[in-house]
Please model this.
Amino acid sequence: MKRNILIALLTVFCSALLLLLSGCSLQGREGSSTSDAPKKTASVITPDVNVPTAVPKGIPVLMYHKIGPDKDNDAVISEELFKKQMKLLKEEGFHPISMQQLYDYVTKGTPVPVKPVVLTFDDGYADTYSIVFPVLKEYGFDATFFVNPGDVGQRMTWAQLKEMKEAGYTIANHGYQHIHMKELTNAQQVENIQKGQEALKDKLGISNVWFCYPYGSFNTYSEEACKANNIKAALSMNPGWVHVGDNPYTLHRIWIGNAVDLNHFRERITTEHYTDL
Ligand SMILES: [Zn+2]
Model:
């Protein structure tokens, strides 16, 4: 009889202990969510979730800089042409994807929506906020913005970048300063990326993993400099599409400028053997 009472007591004790432990683990899971988690509810990016996915032979990554009236500048495209290009993407069923989707495709062959394209904007120009951001929002397109944290405040503000980040866009590192990586010592390369990472963390709370070489300039050490700063992939300015198995630290991009009219634009996003301009 005494033995039965002892077993009953033990059972009650163990059940109580289990309940306590499960409560602890639940609390632990809740407590583990970090401020870096994307705030999905506020995102203005509205990808078509019903679109079929596939593993394409390649993905075009488009490279934009400044949008404006400047003539004879290869890094500038008119507002009119830019808007026509975005309209073409929408009307012809292209699907802008994120850097993370591109990375998963390159490193793991993960399927992406059909007719994928990656939109990148370098240097953080004022028009990135005043022209590009509203157009992308209108179409619900995803895009990535590579900024030089050391220059923020001159053309764009941290408040504008914060607004874009909270709208769901990827803000990433283009070097703390816009300088040629291959002209720097190894230590200076690490430092230029590191200071950019720290500023993105400090000002926007971003644990950034994407880099874009200023002027497309890099050397044999640059990949190491990226890895030392938790960078998972880096974009160059070398022309061509991106493929499964490419080195993620030297990903190619397609130049877009005023010479890229709508026919050339369509060609650049439908064949990797596009006309050199
Ligand atoms: Zn740049």
Notes: Residues 2-31 form the longest helix (30 residues). The CA atoms of residues 95 and 116 lie 5 Å apart.
